[in-house]
UniProtKB/TrEMBL annotation:
Cell compartments where the protein resides: Cell inner membrane; Cell membrane
Protein known as: Amino acid ABC transporter permease
GO molecular function list: transmembrane transporter activity
SUPFAM superfamilies assigned to the protein according to its UniProt record, in alphabetical order: MetI-like
Organism of origin: Enterobacter dykesii
Lineage: Bacteria, Pseudomonadati, Pseudomonadota, Gammaproteobacteria, Enterobacterales
Pfam families named in the record: BPD_transp_1 (PF00528)
Keyword Transmembrane on entry: yes
Length: 221
């Protein structure tokens, strides 16, 4: 005996889904900006001379890349308060996403920098630029151009990983879906709709970031 799908029962809950979607979008935008900023800074540190600071940064990258995101989130939510660092669920979720993306983007951007011809550094010195100016104006733009698609993919992975923050009761999209499912018991319908929303959000985010890359970095389609 087959059951009839009842998507109409979800209409009263669209405000909850849209509110959760909006929170997910906000988290994604802020985590992307913060994570990429950390990644650029970390790539600059890791691409220079080996120092104690670059070794510490390398340790951070290895820890984040070799542990589950949910464990990182739980450490921030439940571990840091023991050290006196208390924060809301939203602040913890954002911090976890920024830290996670920062580690991965560090290595992605560093890979782009490593294949940069040494002649570009020398050209910067000839033009009288400082090492920092050479990095920002001469080395970083073509490096980002080379690894931009991989960077976009990592940002989308972090966005999808934001669903984990529902485990700490932060009311993003997956939290809203779980809440609606608990009220309606329409598991298939609720999670099918949620899957479609995440899919549309991923495609939209990729298109927007690639369009920005083509405009500002000259990334090829």
């Amino acid at each position: 005996m087959t059951e009839q799908l009842d998507f109409s029962a979800l209409w009263p809950y669209w405000p909850e889904l849209l509110a959760g979607l909006w929170i997910t979008v906000q988290l994604t935008v802020m985590a992307t900006v913060g994570g990429l900023a950390i990644g650029i800074f970390g790539a600059a540190i890791r691409s220079g001379r080996t120092t104690w600071f670059s070794r510490i940064w390398g340790g951070y990258v290895e820890i984040i890349r070799n542990t589950p995101f949910v464990v990182q989130l739980f450490f921030i939510v439940f571990g840091l308060p023991n050290l006196g660092l208390k924060m809301t669920a939203g602040e913890a979720a954002l911090l976890a996403m920024v830290v996670n993306l920062g580690a991965y983007s560090t290595e992605i951007i560093r890979a782009g920098i490593q294949v940069t011809p040494k002649g570009q550094w020398e050209a910067g010195r000839v033009l009288g630029l400082t090492r920092l100016q050479t990095f920002i104006r001469v080395v970083l733009p073509p490096a980002l151009q080379r690894i931009y698609p991989a960077l976009v993919s990592q940002c989308i992975i972090v966005m999808l990983g934001s669903s984990v923050v529902s485990q700490v009761s932060y009311e993003e999209l997956t939290f809203a879906a779980n809440l609606i499912q608990s009220r309606t018991f329409l598991s298939f319908e609720v999670y099918l709709v949620t899957t479609g929303i995440y899919l549309a959000l991923s495609i939209t985010l990729r298109q927007l970031m690639m369009a920005a890359g083509r405009k500002w970095l000259g990334v090829q389609a």
